[in-house]
Amino acid sequence: MEQTQKRRGDSRMKVMWRLSWPAIIEQILATMVSYVDTAMVGVMGAAGTAAVSVNAAPIWLSGGLLVGVGVGYSVQVSNAIGAGDDERARQIIRQGVLATLVTGFLGLLLFQALAPLIPRWLGAKPEVLPQAVSYLRCYTMAMPFIAAGYIFSAILRCMGNTKAPLYFNTAANLINIVLNFFLIYPTRTAVLFGAPVTLPGAGLGVTGAAIASAAALAFAGGALLIAGFRQGERFRISLHDSFRPDRAIIRQAVHLGVPTAAERCTINLGQIAMTAVVASLSTVALAANHIATTAEGLCYLPAYGISFAGIALVGQAVGAGSAEDAQAYGRLAALLGFFLTLGTAVALFLLAPYLAALFNSDAEVVAQAALMLRIVSVSEPFFALSIILSGALRGAHDVRFPMVVGLLCMWGVRIVLAPILVYRAGMGLAGVWTAMAADLILRGVLCALRWRSGKWKTICGLERAGVLR
């Protein structure tokens, strides 16, 4: 009996790792490219970095909404595959295409209309405002493709295809770097093997960075949408199929996706509020905040990769009616993510000054960013737990609890604590990041307790089905 359980555990680990490693590699490569992208913009000084930074929160907000849409359809796909209902899986994928078109073009219209206003609302300084508006307007021209990227990355991962998002998103990141090289900088002369070489450039600065990002995202989104049409004979769909809206699928997508979108919106609106607090300090603080946020991504990369596998495997186990597999995959994902993130958190603490120096040449910006990274490093393993177990809970249809946790921790902890530490305690930017660390630790603890309680089994119907608790 013990040998059988050990073999089953080994098998689960192999399945988990097979789905996790492409997603982890994808996240690592994306972050490395993001580092290069930030460093390229950082060459233009604090104003250039601040122009990108002030737009980060609204871009994250739109991404959070699209994550919710992706969850709404991808969880249904995983449930259908677990239940062996291929026709339903194909129908859900077709409905995902409709959702991509609606959300993508709606986002495009809203951002183009509000681009002149959003950076001003977020407190951009006069010297930053023109560049910030240009960046947001150019970047969001790719919104239909950005929607396709979010939604179909989620759908493909929940089908067990984590390699397509790896390939296409990695290629897009490389495209972004190349286009940055030619669009950000002006034409200049370099020395190659002892001979002068003229390097062409458009000299567009921050606007060039936005155009490069938009083009790269358009490539990735288009490629992932095509991949969604061509997932083998079992799940292949065609433009000749019926794309008529299916009320039952849309209703279930709303049920699953709205709490996730609300959670992301809650968190991102809180980040917007925090951006306004940071922007009120100084341009240096805003630049340091952006750099530290970018570098912090190093820590939770394994968690996001593992969470993609976790939501797919828990969702498929729920579709198959196996509470034992769902429980095991969720626990395995959480343990794996916690200990991998613990290692990266130690590295972040030790290498903070060197990481910050990669992105900006301003000594004051680098010093502040390094301090922020060390403050937040202690909370990263708990943040990993919240990322992974929130995904596992969504795969089990327990979508409201992560939303409540996001609301409680962001608005009840971070938003309340940060102004007190910044203004009353005089901690400046460090106060914002201390409040953030408290928020992340509490999220991880609450999500771990929820998964351990097993209440999600009742929500997804596994206990009513009489399966093993």
Automatic annotation (TrEMBL):
InterPro entries: Intein_endonuc_central (IPR004042), MATE_fam (IPR002528), MATE_MdtK (IPR050222), MdtK-like (IPR048279). It is a multi-pass membrane protein. One of its GO terms (biological process) is monoatomic ion transport. One of its GO terms (cellular component) is plasma membrane. Keywords: Antiport, Cell membrane, Ion transport, Membrane, Transmembrane, Transmembrane helix, Transport. The chain crosses the membrane at residues 21-45, 57-75, 96-119, 139-159, 166-185, 205-229, 272-292, 304-323, 335-359, 365-389, 401-423, 429-449. GO terms for molecular function: antiporter activity; endonuclease activity; xenobiotic transmembrane transporter activity. Residues 335-413 form the DOD-type homing endonuclease domain. Its main location: membrane. PROSITE patterns: INTEIN_ENDONUCLEASE. Belongs to the multi antimicrobial extrusion (MATE) (TC 2.A.66.1) family. PANTHER family: FMN_FAD EXPORTER YEEO-RELATED, MULTIDRUG RESISTANCE PROTEIN NORM-RELATED. Multidrug efflux pump. This is Probable multidrug resistance protein NorM. It comes from Lawsonibacter hominis.
